[in-house]
Amino acid sequence: MTDNRRFLKRAALGLLDAIGEQHPMGHQPSKANRYVLVSQDRVRVEIMFEKNDDSPPNLWCLKDAAGKVLIAKHNPRLSLAGDLWTRRGKDGPLYGRHSALEKMPQLGNADLVCFTPDSVEQIGQIVDRLRRVTESDIS
Predict the structure, then answer these.
(1) Above pLDDT 90, what percent of the chain?
(2) What angle do CA 83, 138, 35 make, to 5 degrees?
(3) At 4, is the secondary structure helix, strand, or coil?
(4) Burial 74-105 (b: 16+ CB within 10 A, else e)
(5) What pLDDT shows up at residue 112?
(6) pLDDT tens for residues 51-85?
(7) CA separation for the pair 64, 108 (Å, rounded)
(8) Cβ neighbours of residue 12 closer than 8 Å, sequence gap 6 or more
(9) Is 127 exposed, middle or buried (0-12, 13-18, 19+ CB in 10 A)?
(10) Taking a C-beta distance cutoff of 8 angstroms, is the pair 63, 112 a contact?
(11) What is the pTM of this model?
């Protein structure tokens, strides 16, 4: 893992640990941390952050929670609910996303975006937007 990637992951985890609640499902030991952020309007927003050494600093959230402006600015990868379970593996259909997302009530079967920030500033912008989510953003 590069020094920059290590730095970004530590910064993201430090920020998320400071302002988020650990998700009721808990964190995965080495792959991902699950959080619930509570917005200024008291809306609970699930997010998942990939912390393992092999992945970029991916932050997953509801597409609608991210908002159009943030999506246009940072061009995240889109992961639509309709694309789940469409690929097949040797044992049958595959979920098609990171396994830490599958059973999360808000994220598991929703339209998501996956941000891959390349600076601490971008991490802050993403988290700041999620902290301003209103009920109408995600309903």
Answers:
(1) 90
(2) 80
(3) helix
(4) bebeebeeeebeeeeeeeeeeeebbebbeebe
(5) 97
(6) 998 999 999 999 999 999 899 999 999 999 999 99
(7) 14
(8) 49, 57, 59, 117, 123
(9) buried
(10) yes
(11) 0.94
* Burial of 135 per CB tally in 10 Å (0-12, 13-18, 19+): exposed
- Segment 95-115 mean pLDDT: 96
pLDDT tens track for 31-41: 999 999 999 99
The position carrying tokens 């998501």 is: 112
For residues 43-69, one letter each, b for 16 or more C-beta atoms within 10 angstroms of the residue's C-beta and e for the rest, the string is bebbbbbbbeeebebbbbbbbbbbbee
Q: Taking a C-beta distance cutoff of 8 angstroms, is the pair 33, 48 a contact?
A: yes
